[in-house]
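Q: Structure for this?
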Amino acid sequence: MHRTGELYGQFKTLEQQKESATLGMWIFLITEVMFFGGIMLTYATYRHFYYPAFAVGSNTLSLKLGGFNTVVLLASSFTMAMAVWSSQVGKKTLISIFLLLTITLGFVFFGVKYVEYSQKFHHHLVPGKKFDIFYCVNNPASCPDVDAEELMEESKLLEEAKAADPDLNAHAQLYYSAYFGMTGLHALHMVIGAGLLFWLFTGSLAGKFTPQWNTPVDIVGLYWHFVDIVWIYLFPLLYLIDRHK
Amino acid sequence: MSEQEHSEHIVSPGIYLAIILILLFLTGTTISAAFVNLGRFNIVVALAIATLKATLVVLFFMHAKYSPKRTKLIILAGIFWLALLLFMTLSDYITRVDYRGVRFPISQVIHQLPAQRG
Amino acid sequence: MSATAATPVKTLPEHHYLNATYGIRSWLLTVDHKRIALLYLASVTLFFFIGGFFAMMIRLHLLTPSGYLLSADTYNRMFTMHGVAMIFFFLIPSIPAILGNFLIPLMIGAKDLAFPKINLLSWYVYVVGAAFTLYSMVSGGLDTGWTFYTPLSTVYSNSAVAPAVIGVFITGFSSILTGLNFLVTIHTMRAPGMTWFRLPMFVWAHYATSIVMILGTPVIAITLALAGMERLFGLGFFNPAMGGDPILFQHLFWFYSHPAVYIMILPAMGVISELIPTFARKQLFGYHFVAAASLAIAVIGFLVWTHHMFLTGQSTYAALAFSFLTFLVAIPSAVKVFNWTATLYGGSISFDTPMLYAFGFLGLFLIGGLTGLFLGCLGTDIHVHDTYFVVAHFHYIMVGGAIMGYLGGLHFWWPKMTGRMYPEWIARIAALILFVGFNLTFFPQFLLGYLGMPRRYHVYPPEFQVYNVMSTAGASILAIGYLMPMIYLTWAAFFGKVAGNNPWPATGLEWTTQSPPLTENFEVTPVVTWEPYDFHHRPDLGLDVAANGVVSAHGND
């Protein structure tokens, strides 16, 4: 296994090796673009057909938590870029620090996501037999974390939407299927990213990354930035539908 | 012979800092814009801002601006193919007209959910 | 080096990739692209037999119009699993994962692919996906058609859908990893002097194929993931009862599955582009056009998928556009056929087995491709959609085209892979049997389809029986045509006549090394100074060039 930035046997120069690794990662990211693209198409189609339901669904998401998570991920992209820079200029301690920061921010993101997901679970907003978009409005006692004013607004939104779409519940479930599908897939990619970052972190502690050889930091960085870009799109698509109501 | 990578261009932390600040500003903008009623253009504005943010991340954080042409071509190809998938499929939906002249008819929803099978 | 030694080569080279290391671990943990190719050969051949078994059940059942052999439900499982096994586990990996893996590093002068460990991973991913699918097959099978249309597959089917969906999902990543490996390898690992336009057309074909693998396969991955989630968790993406749209599933499915057919045919075309210049002793006519046509097929192939959905109630305007694009995609294929034919003209043609397969390809691909135009034309498609016309069309391309290319390639490179020649005359007879069997099986199906026999039905009107019986008879001959190479190629690998470096002789870099090659392929990194298929300037091949420029068909071997 790769310990000191040695050349792998099939390559002739370190230059060729780095070029191949970088090219390989970019091509892999394109496959990820198409992978997420499929579920984006699904989202786009149903948003087009069932706009009222999507608007209602979007308004049940916490803008504060979503916005906060967006900031967290953007910041983690910054710290990742700084980790790559540190490896390029040979500041070995900084590499570890920035990697650790990136991992920490990633975990903050997970924490917030966990809060959001468990909230959805309690509000009967997870797709399945128990899904009910009207649950909190009909059972305010079971949703103590939603205050009365919010419930009033939600009730109003739901009534308007139901007038426009008699099958609101079924279509809102589609919104939530898209929500969990897209954010779940994104979270899975972040978990893998966090694992890769941790592997990098241990490598950085061992002082493996030098200006002559920092390929792993570089390509994991590319992956992490991509995961950030997916969220950059997910946030407005999921959280910002019809917020002006 | 294999193509040679350009010698590594090191992007300065100053640029990264500028970019992250712009990104945070744009995030604020997109949230504020969501509270303005622009009708059908809300989504256009939201996607435009998101695309601007994504472009900044790709160009600077992912060093695409300083990468060889081949990398830029790959990125463009990916975006182009995603656009193909989205637009060509949606083109089917939005140009449908049924025999009554009704635009984009969709399947009617039956109100009962079927028993689930594993 | 030269195939013109005065005395024939009698022994295999002392060291080569097959005897470099011994033991099962050295095979299961290998990173040598050549060994991985053989691992794929074993698993892909297994699935060919599995798919063939299901084909046999279909054809046996269709001997009688009222379906005595199988129930409707069982029949549905037979054709579904035939499709799944053949498409995802045989056709898509066959040439790229076997011949591509083996040959691409050799053809470009590299020691291995760019990512040998990812190469091995891709085989293991294939095996895991195959295991899930096999589990589906033995636990009752799948009855939805290989197309998994919803909501049958996600809600109403009583068959083992979930494991099959998971299996195909996983195997898709094998394809993605292979494509990624090839793209990077071709970009960064070429030997000095191996410029883009000196690459063998086989490499260009795999470059185009890899583009399709990279851009298309992830879409079916997400589609199957969504369908799987719908099946397992009752989500409503594609279920009309919950507001979902089955047509959306079809759009997502065919976005990949149409380009998938180009994944299946482009490598075969790459093989043909190697065989025809070699056995006509002439430079490939219009090299640049053939390379460009490969890329054009890859790109335009992504723009036509809705032609599988003309009868679903889609927008007429979209249908018009896609029909036009479908006609467009035929053009680069035609360009290739013209260039191959032009290569033959004025050449010194010999009828070795690989060339017989190439000729078979030319004729059968032509028929298959032209019948595609009937399907791409909106009016005629209304008549022949979902009939045996479609079945015949794609079998002409996939079996008459892709499998002929695969077998031609296997025969052509068998001496390189094993160091030994297959028995020529038995091989020629097998090729002929295959050709006859194939046409007898599938030509009647064009007639059946045109006359109105629907596909995927377990019964048919009695007036169609004659053609069905002909088709089944042909299938049994076809089976013999397939069994024969299985047997004699295996025999030849151990007992065939030692082949030497370049038995044909052919012009590629792979033929300048020993047969079988060393693990590291080349003792010294080659420097390329010649153009591809340039028989006139390769004295090392030992071929005479006549005064009129015609190169002789055989060397002094």
